[in-house]
């Protein structure tokens, strides 16, 4: 896991550099399909969510992250839900999240966007904070994710969603693990230290 979430947010750029410089030079991909909704992955859990006695949490929204290369855009969208019985870990989690990295036209190459979509396997919440993890299930054609990240690679994301007027929301992204290192496990994510500079998130804690 990368120690600095701004460097971790550069995961797509780093992956592109490792593969080839396709992040800028590749032809613009076809329009991305609509993100899969939480219901696409969570229909089996509908009865649990409907139960009046079940504790529930949710995290939903879309935002642009602070990023050192200001002409590029790193965006993160999420629609995640979880149910709890007791304790801090959920009994069930479902939904999706998507990370995208957009590059401007440069050196004669067109603007392009690479994205990865993840199936949620854990959502934890506590007051104004949350973590969500998920495994990679879809990416755009020609994306460097296809050749560098293993199928069902797991990513962890953390959130700080303060009350209105108490400062900006923040987000933190895990990076890929090096060969020979343990893979990221469910419910793990780094500190949320990168500001959300556009958009935002709605967090519902289960307590």
List the helices and strands and how they pair.
Blueprint: H1 5-9, H2 11-19, H3 22-25, H4 38-42, H5 46-50, E1 55-65, E2 73-84, E3 92-103, E4 112-126, E5 129-139, H6 144-148, E6 154-160, E7 170-173, E8 194-204
Q: How much helix is in the residues?
A: 10-25%
Overall mean pLDDT stands at: 78
Strand order of the largest sheet: 1-2-3-4-5-6-7-8
Beta-strand share of residues: 35-45%
User: What is the end-to-end distance?
Assistant: 29 Å
- Uncertain regions spanning at least 5 consecutive residues: 1-30, 43-52
- Please state the overall shape, judged from the principal axes of the Cα atoms: globular
- Secondary-structure-derived class: alpha+beta
Rounded to an integer, what's the Rg over CA atoms? 17 Å
Give a count of the beta strands, DSSP E runs of length 2 or more. Answer: 8
Question: How do the helices and strands follow one another from N- to C-terminus?
Answer: HHHHHEEEEEHEEE
Note the main sheet.
8 strands, antiparallel, barrel
Q: How many helical elements?
A: 6
Detailed description of the structure:
The chain has 207 residues and is of the alpha+beta class. The protein contains 6 helices and 8 strands; from the N terminus they run H-H-H-H-H-E-E-E-E-E-H-E-E-E. It has helices at 5-9, 11-19, 22-25, 38-42, 46-50, 144-148; strands at 55-65, 73-84, 92-103, 112-126, 129-139, 154-160, 170-173, 194-204. The chain has an 8-stranded antiparallel beta barrel with strand order 1-2-3-4-5-6-7-8. The protein is globular.
């Amino acid at each position: 896991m990368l120690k600095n979430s701004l460097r971790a947010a550069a995961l797509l750029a780093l992956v592109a550099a490792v593969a080839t410089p396709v992040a800028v030079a590749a032809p613009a991909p076809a329009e991305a399909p609509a993100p899969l909704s939480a219901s696409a992955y969570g229909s089996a859990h509908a009865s649990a969510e409907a139960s009046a006695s079940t504790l529930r949490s949710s995290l939903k929204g879309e935002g642009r992250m602070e990023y050192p290369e200001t002409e590029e855009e790193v965006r993160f969208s999420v629609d995640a839900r979880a149910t709890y019985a007791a304790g801090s870990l959920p009994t069930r989690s479902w939904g999706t999240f998507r990370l995208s990295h957009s590059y401007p036209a440069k050196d004669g190459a067109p603007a392009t966007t690479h994205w990865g979509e993840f199936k949620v396997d854990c959502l934890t919440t506590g007051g104004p904070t949350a973590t969500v993890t998920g495994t990679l299930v879809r990416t755009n054609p020609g994306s460097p994710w296809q050749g560098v990240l293993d199928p069902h690679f797991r990513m962890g994301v953390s959130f700080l969603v303060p009350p209105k007027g108490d400062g900006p929301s923040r987000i933190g992204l895990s990076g890929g693990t090096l060969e020979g290192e343990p893979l990221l496990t469910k419910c793990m994510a780094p500190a949320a230290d990168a500001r959300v500079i556009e958009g935002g998130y709605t967090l519902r804690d289960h307590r």
